[in-house]
Backbone:
């Protein structure tokens, strides 16, 4: 038996309890470089906790298809984690509120192909889930010597489908 979950479009309002949507829709906050570059300023709240520092890594994730089986979620208690696609294809973003140390009922979002995301600290989320190839992302997250990963495996998996 599985639970069913349908992704919805990613918006800042719907995603706000879990993190930040990184996009450049609309008018830039300011123009720089002699007016030739629009700056969409300060789009994410980065937090790397005590004993950590910001790091930039590059991920190359295998594409997934819908329906997608969600059987595990993870969180990072000591730092935020931002995913910035290095392509223009949509990807799946799955998050859940905390329910006494475990993920509650998950929510699924689909990006529009021009959005990245930043998970706030300690937010339950699914793994990186590109829906096409290539699945390359720049990832900004905490680098440190202490563990910063908790995983939860569902007794009954969820199925993400359209």
Residues:
């Amino acid at each position: 038996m599985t639970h069913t979950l349908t992704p919805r479009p990613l918006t800042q309002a719907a995603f706000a309890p879990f993190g930040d949507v990184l996009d450049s829709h609309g008018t830039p906050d300011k123009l720089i470089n002699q007016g030739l570059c629009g700056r969409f300023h300060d789009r994410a709240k980065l937090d790397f906790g005590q004993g950590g520092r910001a790091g930039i890594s590059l991920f190359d994730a295998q594409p997934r298809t819908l329906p997608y089986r969600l059987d595990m979620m993870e969180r990072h208690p000591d730092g935020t984690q931002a995913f910035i696609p290095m392509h223009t294809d949509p990807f799946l973003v799955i998050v859940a509120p905390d329910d006494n140390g475990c993920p509650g009922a998950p929510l699924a979002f689909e990006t529009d192909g021009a959005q990245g995301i930043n998970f706030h600290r300690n937010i339950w989320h699914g793994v990186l889930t590109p829906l096409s190839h290539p699945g390359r992302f720049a990832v900004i997250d905490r680098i440190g010597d202490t563990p910063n990963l908790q995983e939860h495996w569902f007794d009954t998996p969820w199925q993400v489908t359209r």
Q: What stands out?
A: The chain has one helix and 17 strands. Helices lie at 12-15.
